[in-house]
Design goal:
single chain, Glucose Permease (Domain IIA), binds zinc ion
């Protein structure tokens, strides 16, 4: 047993004690974040977590350009032979986009809700994620357009993300499932109620995730359904809507409320944590530089 971030006990997966090791990855993006991460030996599960951390601030389709950079420090758990058994939590992550750096530290304030925070104590979490799907391409924006099936100009009341059938769709925020059923032209449709004003809807899905039915609670980032092409649809995509007081608004431009701002002792405990993480980060950077220079000197390795 060990303590988790919230101070509770969690069962270890293996009987053998595993060594927790700071693991570092960094890369400059040349074509895609995905390719850069693979080249830098950043595991896919860590990359997915990284995308989740930044998905509140970054529209991965539009904002990420060649020359942008990311850096991540995460826990790796190794067995007694030094073999990686599993990866753990991200401790620090940064992205530098068009010269502007966003950096976040994992921290658990007294509320018990672990989140990522900037140095100023502002949480990364917003009320809603703008892009509730990983690695998808925005294929149709919000507004008037010629409908691909009906052929006449029609208001497009959501945004479309092209993605292969079966791609997981995440809940854009914490909420309650209002509908998870077949809904005419929307096909297999999920609607979540986040608060008194805000709802989100997900259409054309191939199927719903287990346990997602009217009345069930979902957490932000939880998988609620999978991309499909049910209903009036020309191909696999997610049609995503944000409803504000019952009216569809543009998910890409609507002002989303910002997250938590740590104050008092919560801010102090974050500020106490940051230097130790920065020191571990500096050591990991040095180690990475050393490995890189050794690799240059030893082409056989
Ligand atoms: Zn659509």
């Amino acid at each position: 047993m060990k303590l988790d971030d919230a101070g509770g006990f969690v069962a270890e997966e293996a009987e053998r004690p595993l060594d927790r090791r700071d693991t570092y990855g960094a890369a400059t993006i040349e074509s895609s974040l995905y390719e850069a991460a693979i080249a830098a030996n950043v595991p896919i599960d860590v990359l997915m977590d990284l995308v989740r951390v930044f998905s509140f601030d970054v529209d991965f389709q539009r904002d990420v350009q060649p020359g942008d950079r990311f850096e991540v420090l995460f826990d790796g758990f190794d067995d007694e032979f030094g073999e990686r058994v599993r990866n753990g939590e991200i401790r620090y992550a940064s992205m530098t986009l068009s010269g502007k750096t966003l950096a976040f530290y994992r921290h658990t304030p007294t509320s018990g809700f672990t989140d990522f925070f900037g140095r100023d104590g502002r949480s990364v979490r917003k009320a809603l994620m703008r892009t509730p799907i990983d690695g998808a391409r925005l294929s149709s924006g919000f507004g008037k357009r010629r409908h691909p099936i009906l052929g006449y100009n029609k208001m497009h009341k959501g945004v479309d993300f092209a993605a292969p059938t079966g791609t997981p769709i995440m809940a854009a925020g914490d909420g309650v499932v209002e509908m998870a059923e077949r809904n005419g032209a929307y096909g297999n449709y999920v609607r979540l109620r986040h608060n008194n004003e805000v709802k989100t809807a997900y259409a054309h899905t191939s199927r719903f995730a287990k346990g997602v039915r009217a009345g069930s609670r979902v957490k932000q980032g939880q998988i609620i359904a999978y991309v499909g092409t049910t209903g009036r649809s020309t191909g696999p995509h997610l049609h995503y809507e944000v409803l504000l007081n019952g009216r569809q608004v543009n998910p890409m431009s609507v002002e989303l409320p910002t997250g938590e701002q740590l104050l008092g002792k919560d801010l102090k405990s974050l500020q106490a944590l940051i230097p130790s993480v920065d020191a571990r980060l500096a050591a990991a950077r040095d180690q990475a530089r050393l490995v890189a220079s050794n690799d240059d000197g030893n082409p056989g390795r």
